[in-house]
Write a structure and sequence with these properties.
Helix content is 38%, strand content 18%. The protein is an alpha+beta fold. It has a single domain, classed as Aminopeptidase, CATH 3.40.630. The chain has a four-stranded mixed β-sheet with strand order 1-2-3-4, covered by helices on one side. Helix 4 packs across helix 5. The N and C termini lie far apart (63 Å).
Length: 171
């Protein structure tokens, strides 16, 4: 019983973290009405069941400041507002029984495709530093498995990017 209480105490920091994940995670600005202020949620279904999900944030390139009153510059539409930007993957998961079957890799492929389509063919895609599972409340000794999974995810994304580059060179 003492062991269970100790585990409960050590892991209790995860409860407020889990409760903090809400719609504000996807819509950082409470009254966001523009598509540029919302993350994209990609999902994969098997029948009527959702088996995978990915949260993608498209960040526009830092706009160049135009001096006030210069009248210069043109208006940018939604499609061009992300040109030169990048895609950040903020969350990525697959249901346990569908892991290792390509579902998650397909989600990564789609995230890269969408990012390159909207931000430009050479847009960067990567995992956000502050992603859904980035906060660690356990002592570092116990976080080794989590860090290993982060390295594996980055390696998988690098493989997807390399595969797209190889296909692009073949054309």
């Amino acid at each position: 019983m003492t062991y269970l209480l100790a585990i409960r105490y050590v892991t209790s920091g995860y409860i407020p973290l889990a409760e903090a994940v809400s719609w504000s995670f996807i819509r950082p600005v409470p009254d966001a009405t523009s598509p540029t202020e919302e993350d994209l949620v990609l999902g994969t279904r098997f029948g009527s069941e959702i088996v995978g999900a990915l949260v993608l944030r498209l960040e526009p390139a830092v706009p160049i400041a135009v001096p006030a009153g210069s009248g210069g510059g043109r208006r940018r539409n939604k499609a061009s507002s992300f040109r030169g930007g990048k895609g950040l993957i903020r969350a990525w998961t697959t249901k346990l029984r569908y892991r290792g079957k390509g579902v998650g890799t397909d989600l990564l492929h789609e995230a890269v495709r969408i990012t390159r389509e909207r931000c430009g063919k050479d847009a960067e895609v990567g995992f956000a530093v502050e992603h859904a599972n980035s906060q660690m409340v356990l002592p570092e000794f116990f976080n080794g498995t989590f860090r290993k999974r982060e390295r594996w995810a980055a390696k998988t994304l690098d493989g997807v990017l390399a595969e797209r580059e190889m296909l692009k060179k073949k054309r």
